[in-house]
Design brief:
The complex is a heterodimer of chains A (215) and B (482). Chain A contains 9 helices and 5 strands, in the order ααααβαβαβαβαβα. Chain A has 215 residues and is α/β, with parallel strands linked by helices. An 8-stranded parallel β-barrel of chain B has the order 7-10-11-12-13-15-17-18, surrounded by 8 helices. Chain B has a 4-stranded mixed beta sheet with strand order 9-8-20-19, with helices on one face. The chains are: A alpha/beta (215), B alpha/beta (482). The interface between A and B is medium-sized, with 22 and 27 residues.
């Protein structure tokens, strides 16, 4: 029966069907299947298929996001069982995300968060209008590898610089990579504030993060 | 001599992309959204106003739910016509449903430098230069602050920008970069200095504010507070939705129209509840997000249809509209730019959107290009000509002249031709030269437009602002900075 279950798991991700993904996770736990095996042999197969279809132009952004949401829900359902067994899903890195202080624009940042977590990163999304102190505290408490700072306004974009300055002041700058994003962000801005990377869209952000953390 | 402004008026063309019944369906869906789902108003003052008028207010979540009759009654007090005042009153823009004006596009962060041709970050001098070029053109009817003065402090940036516009042009100034109460009060004090008092400002508002909504179904707190201050002083104010299919709106266009409409009319109703009769306008630049990367596209068939649909909604509420047209997603002035800007402008003009925003940008309103700006002006001129349609009467049928020429011959030397030839459109930037001449030079519209911008900047002298007024504006800005 198990290969059928794995196939159904993969299909639930391809369909972007969160309810089905969660239900199948419960079934797996009930059948005593190792959650890590369920993830690797089931859900991840689906994620990879959607990713491939997207890269060849056969799938679109909403399908990618729905697959990401379903994946997140499935993993969350399996987490208590993993904790009980003392196992842990290997993550590509830990990422703190926030829209900077004074800025309430959420969509781009959240989209990047979904793409990151679907790609295997652990994401801590602090939301919008987040002061530098809170961002730094989270980086410290989670021992994050990367921080993503979003801003849509030229007047709040300067806060990205202030967070980087705070990281330097607190001696954290060498420990964490900094990515910035938002419509007014350009390559020149990234160079000026000495961030590590940026991307003009959410898909590109994943590639940049992977590259930064592989160094 | 005051510069004449080109405006589309008394159109012969008509376009109805939504039937009256469909407009009503969108309106009813909108009322249902506001009543059942609610709209986020993250401003204490705004929430209290809604509460005082009997709306259901969740002060914790800052969500307002209002009954249809409260919204409909509030909207009824919005004036159907008003003027956007100019330093030179002959350049006032009539917001009366029978005029279409072109503005510069706004809020850009980069510019193709006029001299070096290199892309760079914008500064206050760019605001000055763009305003001066716009002042010299007849197509640009009003200024939307085109680029951000990123060399100025955040607290006073918006104020430096409007001062630069008034000092370098006699045309109306609109900005989207005043978005908190303190800035709004300072900006109004400055506007009052320019016209000589608050009463005159009410009659001839030389400033108008645009506030972006926070989609889906939300507003920005600072923007709401700024808009309320503006409404108090009779400064025309509009809420702009940029609801986008797939991301901040449903994939379907009707649903995205309804979501954006809920944002705009709920904000507009708030201003009317607080200050009945305050001049307000509808502002919109809906689009469909790109299917592959989710980005703002700045063009495409959905944009063009939104451009033609939104004024039907604004007309339904009897308030003027500022419609996003132009603003191509192209990276340089090319096929895509010409296509997108022509169709978006034609569709928005065909329904008589009162303001078109606007000329001059590449890459979805991010990178200013003087060449694109002047070529956009030419697109507006072409649409302006098309909107006049074809006049049919005895004079235009020209039977007498046709008889004079008879079979064979030509019409070049006819009196009738002499009389009417200047009605024929003469382009500034279209290449109609012999092929050989082009082959020798290989230059094109963008080169000529760039030359023209350089020439304007070198020679055009805008009517200066009284130096005492300038000094007073400086004093206000310095005070705000300290």
């Amino acid at each position: 029966m198990t290969p059928d279950l794995f196939q159904a798991m993969a299909q639930s991700i391809i369909d972007g069907d969160t309810d089905a993904a969660v239900e199948l996770a419960h079934q797996a736990i009930a059948q005593g299947i190792d959650p890590l095996v369920a993830i690797t042999n089931g859900y991840v197969i689906g994620v990879n298929q959607v990713g491939e279809a997207f890269s060849t132009g056969d799938a679109f952004l909403p399908e990618l996001v729905m697959a990401g949401e379903a994946m997140k829900a499935a993993v969350a359902t399996l987490e208590p069982e993993m904790a009980r067994l003392g196992t842990k899903r290997e993550v590509l890195g830990k990422i703190v995300l926030a829209t900077v202080e004074g800025d309430i624009h959420e969509i781009g940042k959240s989209l990047v968060g979904t793409m990151f977590s679907a790609s295997g990163f652990q994401v801590y999304d602090l939301g919008v209008d987040v002061p530098a102190a809170r961002i730094l505290a989270k980086i410290r408490s989670e021992n994050a590898d990367l921080v993503g700072l979003s801003a849509l306004l030229t007047t709040t974009m300067v806060k990205q610089k202030e967070v980087i300055e705070a990281l330097i002041r607190e001696g954290l700058r060498d420990k964490v990579k900094v990515m910035v994003g938002g419509a007014p962000v350009t390559r020149e801005w990234v160079q000026r504030i000495v961030a590590d990377g940026y991307s003009e869209d959410a898909i590109g952000a994943v590639g940049v993060a992977k590259q930064l953390l592989s160094k | 001599m005051p510069g004449k402004i080109k405006t589309i008026t008394d159109p012969k063309l008509r376009l109805e992309v939504l039937t009256p019944e469909e407009v009503k369906q969108i309106h009813e869906a909108t009322l249902q959204i506001i009543e059942k789902i609610g709209v986020r108003f993250p401003s204490k003052r705004a929430l209290e106003i809604w509460h005082a008028h009997g709306a259901e207010v969740d002060f914790n979540k800052m969500i307002v739910r209002a009954k249809p009759d409260l919204i409909e009654k509030a909207l009824k007090s919005a004036p159907p016509a008003f003027v956007l005042g100019a330093r030179d009153p002959q350049q006032n823009c009539q917001m009366d449903g029978n005029h279409v004006y072109l503005g510069t596009d706004g809020c850009g962060v980069e510019i193709i430098d006029l001299n070096s041709g290199q892309r760079r970050t914008t500064c206050l001098q760019d605001v000055v230069d763009i305003v001066r070029v716009a002042d010299a053109t007849e197509e640009i009817g009003f200024h939307w602050i085109a680029v951000s003065a990123q060399d100025k402090p955040v607290v006073s940036r918006g104020l430096h920008e409007i001062k630069a516009a008034w000092e370098n042009s006699t045309k109306h100034v609109q900005t989207e970069s005043i978005y908190n109460e303190v800035e709004a009060r300072a900006a109004i004090e400055m506007a009052s200095c320019v016209v000589g008092g608050l009463e005159e400002l009410r009659r001839r508002p030389v400033l108008s504010l645009m506030q972006c909504t926070a989609p889906p179904l939300g507003h920005d707190g600072g923007s709401l507070d700024a808009a309320l201050v503006a409404a108090e002083y009779g400064i025309p104010t509009g809420f702009m939705t940029m609801a986008s299919c797939l991301t901040t709106g449903p994939a379907t266009m009707a649903g995205t129209l309804a979501v954006g409409n809920a944002e705009v009319i709920s904000g507009t109703a708030l201003l009317q509840l607080a200050y009945p009769g305050a001049p307000v306008f509808y502002a919109a630049a809906q689009t469909a997000s790109d299917l592959r990367n989710g980005s703002y596209t700045g063009g495409g068939p959905e944009d063009f249809l939104f451009g033609a649909a939104t004024n039907l909604l604004a007309d339904f509420y009897h308030i003027p509209l500022s419609m996003g047209s132009f603003a191509t997603g192209a990276k340089e002035p090319n096929w895509q730019a010409g296509l997108e800007n022509s169709l978006s402008t034609f569709m928005a003009s065909a329904v008589m959107s009162d303001m078109l925003l606007g000329a001059g940008f590449l890459h979805g309103s991010r990178i200013w290009s003087y060449a694109e700006m002047l070529m956009d002006c030419e697109i507006f001129s072409i649409v302006h000509k098309m909107m006049q349609g074809i006049v049919v009467n005895a004079e235009t049928l020209a039977l007498e002249t046709i008889a004079n020429v008879g079979p064979g011959g030509n019409y070049l030397a006819q009196k009738h031709t002499q009389k009417h030839m200047r009605e024929v459109f003469l382009p500034k930037f279209m290449d109609r030269r012999p092929y050989n001449e082009w082959e020798e030079k290989k230059d094109n519209a963008a080169d000529w437009a760039l030359q023209k911008a350089k020439k304007i900047l070198a020679s055009h002298q805008p009517e200066p602002l009284d130096r005492h007024i300038s000094a007073e504006l400086n004093r206000i800005i310095t005070r705000e900075e300290s």
